[in-house]
Write a structure and sequence with these properties.
The chain is an alpha+beta fold. It is about 25% helix and about 35% strand. It has a 7-stranded mixed β-sheet, sandwiched between helices. α1 packs antiparallel against α2. The model has no long low-confidence stretch (mean pLDDT about 95).
Length: about 170
């Protein structure tokens, strides 16, 4: 029969936050550029899943925020609005917000290189992505399908807006 495996969540942020790029001078915040695309894709493939690599192959440069350290990519976040060329899973919820006169932005996937974790970069890349989405007139920002609820709430996200329970079947 079916056995409960785990829960995942969608989280929402509906209030603008202050973002001041708090990392030291060795770090640089920027949107992806065409000259960094190949390095970005290698970064994703070497640090994360093949699925994330495939999801980012054709994305627009404006839809990826980066943190670089000494001109090397150390963190990324994918951001998306309804008008993005390649839509992420989270933006599939846009009608639910649009019907209420709201504008949805989506954040994720995102990640920090293995050798740069535990330095505050995860928080910074989330805040940078959120800031970019608010600049593009998003009224609400969604992180979809995550089990990292405590992390996102600690950074800035307010509420769980959806809960998905996953089950596995055992014969």
């Amino acid at each position: 029969g079916f056995i409960f495996d785990h829960n995942t969540h969608n989280l929402i942020l509906s209030k603008r936050i202050k973002f001041d790029k708090s990392l030291s001078g060795e770090y640089k915040y920027q949107l992806l550029s065409e000259d960094l695309r190949e390095e970005f894709l290698k970064f994703v493939l070497s640090n994360f899943s093949r699925r994330w690599y495939n999801e980012n192959i054709d994305c627009e440069c404006r839809d990826v925020v980066l943190i670089l350290r000494d001109n090397v990519i150390v963190a990324f976040a994918r951001i998306c609005m309804k008008d993005s060329k390649i839509l992420t899973n989270g933006i599939n919820n846009y009608l639910r917000f649009e019907n209420q006169g709201r504008v949805l932005g989506a954040l994720g996937p995102l990640g920090v290189s293995k050798d740069q974790r535990k330095k505050g970069l995860g928080k910074e890349i989330v805040l940078y992505g959120v800031d970019e989405l608010f600049k593009r007139k998003a009224t609400d920002i969604l992180v979809d399908w995550t089990s990292l609820v405590d992390f996102y709430k600690k950074v800035c996200f307010e509420d769980i807006c959806d809960l998905y329970s996953q089950y596995r079947y055992e014969f």
